[in-house]
Amino acid sequence: MTLAGMSRAVLTFVVLVLLHYTLRPLLGWRAPIDFLLLAVLTVSVRMRPGAAAILGFCIGLIADSLSPDTLGAGALGMSVVGYAASWLKAVFFADSLPLNALFFFAGKWVFDLLYFIAEHRLRGIELVQQVMIWSPLSAAATSIAGVIVLVVMRPLLEPSVA
Amino acid sequence: MARAGSANSRLDRTCLVVCAALSLIALVLPPPVREPIAGWTRRTLLAPMVMLQERAELSRRAFLDHDTIMRKRDSVALRGMTMTALNAENDRLRGLMGLGSRLRWGFVPAEALHGSGVRDEFGVTLSAGSRAGVQRLSPVVAPEGLIGVVDNVDPTMSHAMLWTHPDFRVSAMAEDASAFGIVQANIANGPRTYLMEMRGVPYRTSIKPGTMIVSSGLGGVYPRGIPLGQVVGETKTNESWARTYLIRPAVFPANVASVMILRPDRASQGVDNVWSIGAVADSTVRRIVVAGDSMARRAALAEAQARQAAQDSVRGDSLRAAGAPIAPSAPTHDSVPVRAIPRLRIHRDSVNHAHLRRDSTPPPPAN
Known about the structure:
The complex is a heterodimer.
Chain A (H helix, E strand, L loop, with lengths): L2 H25 L7 H10 L4 H16 L8 H15 L1 H4 L4 H23 L4 H34 L5
Chain B lengths: L1 H27 L2 H13 L3 H57 L3 E7 L9 E4 L12 E4 L2 E9 L4 E5 L7 E5 L5 E6 L10 E7 L9 E4 L11 E9 L6 E8 L8 E5 L1 H6 L4 H48 L13 H26 L7
Antiparallel strand pairs in B: 1-2, 1-12, 2-5, 3-4, 3-12, 4-5, 6-7, 6-9, 7-8, 8-11, 9-10, 10-11
Helix pairs in contact in B: 3-5
């Protein structure tokens, strides 16, 4: 990746992180949009799987620090999702919005699955309800937001052809 | 080439395994170890983000609470408007109670039931009738002055002709009895001018604007001394032999809700000093309040002076105890009044003494 491309990816990453801590609390939805995961996914497909795993780990750990009881759960989820996204980047490099939407949806759902299993806070029917109802809804919202972000920031994310 | 790719893959997998292992370790860390790590992250890396999140949540709360706050503000504003009306009604009722206590006997309290008809500005229905002792031609008064006269009586209610009625007349005079005349509604400029006019004032008599006009007691219907209004100025009429004065009425009937109906026996006994006593009592209360304030100011001043004197004496004693020479200090503003009090007394005594001297001086020899 060129320096310009890296700068654009970093800028997109920062914007998404900022949206996570400004727009998400402002909306206050029960099934919230996970801009942090979108940021990790957007950057991961432009990195090597190992680096994506490390990035996911760092971002997850920082996010987990707001709830110390589950410190590590988000880091685990983000590491795995980041690694997988980078590993599958050949598939999702296609310029297809539905495919990218599926990518965001699956990424968020897998992350939630790992997170709620790792944190051990929800059990039984509550865990099932969360994973089968709220997580898909949140994943759908995240997917839609991801598609919008891709459409809006496409000029920034894709290098101009000389 | 293939070996390099394989090495990279192995490195990537190693990174993933290490990250996953660290995550799992973080999950199983005991709280005393976990909390410092999370705390450090919150205080450093995450602090700006937490601040942003806090602002966003405050904004959301403000947005959600906007409607509730607006509803509360509206209800408070509405209550405030009602409060003004309640305060006005309280003042009016207090005035009515004051008038009742000054009249002492011979009156019937009643509610003025204003209608909304065309002729309601000339009359009003009262909630007391003949069973309560109301009779025809009983004067109707308010704490501010005369409202009208009862012209129709039923057992449980009555009707009063207001002073705004074109047929209403009352014999009146200036408060100092320097001029007499007949007061009626001023309808020369239309029936809704809501002013009175005092007609038939002798041409040689002049009334200054602001003079209070009261009922004169002539005619036997209205007792002497009920306020009617204040003179605004003279108005020109066709009558060349007498003056006519415009009067700002003491009572606007539309604003009156509670009234007193004077029974004929009370009216025949007179209401002298009932309204003037009210004015005197008000001014007396004001004077007492002012005097109380000045006494409180004097007491506070005396206390401050005493405190200052005590501080001065303590300072002087401590300086003496330390053996320091005490220089005569310039009098401060605080210390002057303390010493001035006895001096004032001396002055008063000396004044009396001077009077004695004057008395003791031998009278001039009578030649």
